[in-house]
TrEMBL record:
Keyword Membrane (UniProt): yes
Transmembrane segments: 43-64, 138-166
Keywords on record: Membrane, Transmembrane, Transmembrane helix
Protein name: Transmembrane protein
Keyword Transmembrane on entry: yes
Length: 176
């Protein structure tokens, strides 16, 4: 298959999809202003749901990236939990070089930690502010991020349903 064949196939697919896409985005000619407004509201709801999904994917990718960074320059140390919280826990640890660190942003994956607890942490030797609880990784971010995406789409579905209901109720009866 040559590049020309690929381009021809792409153009043919675009010619079949374009009328549907144009009708979805701009409406079938002769739409009322009300129909145009409701169509744009629906598009906005879908765009917002897609942005929430993108945010969730980026959250997991960011956690995975942090884990890779830590694993490339792995250091392990014993740490003390200074302030435990469900989303952020402050810790203090001493590296083998006898340097004490208190990471500014706390520790990654802080669930189930308590004040005064002694834990082992893995950190990036080149950036000791990047720290995670030992044996925890980005897999812990999948469920919360997936939940955010699912809730986003459920809210979008409810908003689309409400929009359809409102649109139906506001339609004026056609006089004969």
């Amino acid at each position: 298959m040559t590049a020309t064949d690929v381009l021809d196939r792409g153009r043919a697919r675009w010619r079949t999809v374009r009328p549907y896409l144009t009708a979805f985005l701009f409406g079938a000619g002769g739409d009322t202003r009300r129909a145009t407004v409701f169509r744009r509201i629906r598009i906005g709801i879908i765009v917002l749901a897609c942005l929430v999904t993108l945010q969730s994917v980026l959250l997991v990718l960011g956690a995975w990236r942090n884990d890779r960074q830590i694993e490339r320059h792995l250091g392990v140390a014993e740490a003390t939990v200074l302030d435990a919280g469900p989303r952020r826990s402050t810790i203090e640890f001493v590296t083998p070089d006898r340097i004490t660190y208190r990471p500014e942003l706390g520790v990654l994956y802080p669930s189930e930690l308590e004040n005064g607890m002694r834990i082992y942490v893995e950190y990036d030797v080149n950036n000791p502010d990047l720290v995670r609880v030992q044996h925890r990784n980005a897999a812990l971010a999948i469920i919360p991020a997936g939940s955010i995406a699912v809730v986003g789409w459920l809210v979008a579905a409810a908003a689309l349903g409400a929009t359809a209901l409102i649109e139906r109720r506001t339609q004026r009866p056609v006089s004969v």
